[in-house]
Amino acid sequence: MLPVRFPGDILCRALWYFSQTTTISGGTLLLVIAVHRYLKVCRPFIGKWSLKVKRLVVLGTVAVAAVLSIPTIFFYGEIKVTSDRYSVENTSLVGYRCGNKGSAGALFGYNVFLFIYAVTGIVIITICYTFIGRSIYSKVMTYRKSLRRVNVVPRPELSVSTVSDIRRSKNLENCATNDKNGDHGYPEQPIERTRVSSNFLKPPEKELPKHIKRRSHELVRANIPAMKNHFQHYKYSYMFMTITVVFVIAYLPRIVIMLLESIFVQTFWLKSDSAIVGLLFLYRLYILNHVVNPFIYGFFDVKFRHEVKYLIWRRKNKPVHPDSQTGH
């Protein structure tokens, strides 16, 4: 089941090196993005990264990945495979495949290092996005509680500070109304007035069902633009969370299989055809990450979606010059 038509030792080493570099750089960049989103959402008053700093961080990420991938040049290469099963008159079938051919101990140590590096990155990313989620949730709950206190219909432009201003203005209006009513010179009736005032200030215990339904409908309808504004404000955090989850699901099986392959060097691939097919499927599941990423970007980023539509539409409706048709 394994492909045995891969002649070219240099091509094999180059393929493994660049594949490992892109994998490590992608995972490290997601780690950097998680830390950056954490600082932006949970620590907004810390110094922001300038464009120069961001470019240096990206270049540093690629440089670190390029250095960490250098051992693959020595551990992988062209492997000669001889099959006695199809031998005819002392002539065996010979093939070549790209795989690990270095020292088993060194390869095992390298894969263990990559596994620890990946697990550490996943833990840090999980911690960062956990704090981001808690921060977003606390802000949303504060916003909703403030709306209930001032009894206003939520609008997308309202923030917690805006709601506090509305509550403060309502308190000032109530105080002004009480002062105005106290200047009319009504006769003093302390007992009766206290009873009437207490009964008057009590909110109604039951409201009409139609009023409740109408109010609930207004709140639900008014919450829609508020939810859209919330999603628009935190869309990049949600987008990178989704990208990170897909990356971990796609690449973790490959890392585990590489670790097991370095432990059982001689016997790992000596399995049935169905088992090899399943292992190869999990091993190459990382391709799913590259397929899904453009759709994730298009779903969360409206600008990216519009640019792709414009690119396709422009190429589809590209004007054809008369000279190109006639050849003159």
From TrEMBL:
Topology of the protein relative to the lipid bilayer: Multi-pass membrane protein
InterPro entries xrefs: GPCR_Rhodpsn, GPCR_Rhodpsn_7TM
Highest taxon of the lineage: Eukaryota
Gene3D superfamilies attached to this UniProt entry: Rhodopsin 7-helix transmembrane proteins
CDD domains: 7tm_classA_rhodopsin-like
Sequence similarity: Belongs to the G-protein coupled receptor 1 family.
Protein name: G-protein coupled receptors family 1 profile domain-containing protein
Organism: Magallana gigas (Pacific oyster)
